[in-house]
Amino acid sequence: MRKKLVVGNWKMHGSRAANAELLAGILGARPFTCDVGVCVPFVYIADAAVSLAASDIRWGSQDVSPHEQGAYTGEVSAKMLRELGCRYAIVGHSERRAFHQESDQLVADKAKTALGHGLTPIVCVGETLEQREAGQTEAVVKRQLSAVIHTLGHCAGEMVVAYEPVWAIGTGRTATPEQAQAVHAVLRAQLQAATSHAETMKILYGGSVKPDNAATLFSQPDIDGGLIGGAALKATDFVAICRAAG
Ligand code: PGA
Fold it and tell me: Residue with the nearest Cα to atom 6 of ligand 1?
């Protein structure tokens, strides 16, 4: 039985005051049965580290540089994130693939650098509505995951995968539990072919997860928790989703 994991992706939201209130709400609702994490904007990581240090809630970033260090203005290295106690780094979120032209290989390189510094990469994959309607869902997610599997090699078993259909992100349009499970099963099979750890690896679902749909999504056999955007910004909603992973 895989322990469920629920991770909040705050995206570019928050303020020091709002974050403190949100984290206090999450901390006050402990204990949780599932593992819980928050991936916050870079500038708030140090604050999150202080707030969460004495708890079992983990924190992480929403991106990481593929480079070790050097003249890469504006980038943040895995080593820096690790120094601030980050446990996770989201890589390949569809917003970065779309707005920052991140390729499958760049995402894979970021995942590799993250792992090399003890960060668990949460690797996002997912198809657009156009791709789904053209019957390409399976091919797209397999291509995206395949780049990461090949680049990580024998370490592939250490990543967390997040299936996030682009058409479900921030739209209020969730994949049905059956639609999500079907893709998760494809991803699990792909991991099985590549690593001996596939049965213990976590595959999260993301895309309009809310308190009222979380439990049915999380009850699917290959859905091991969620990557939560909008609903992670309100403590009561995020806590309710963590409970649903229970
Ligand atoms: P959403 O975002 O929950 O707001 O749809 C999920 C994500 O983008 O990780």
Answer: 229
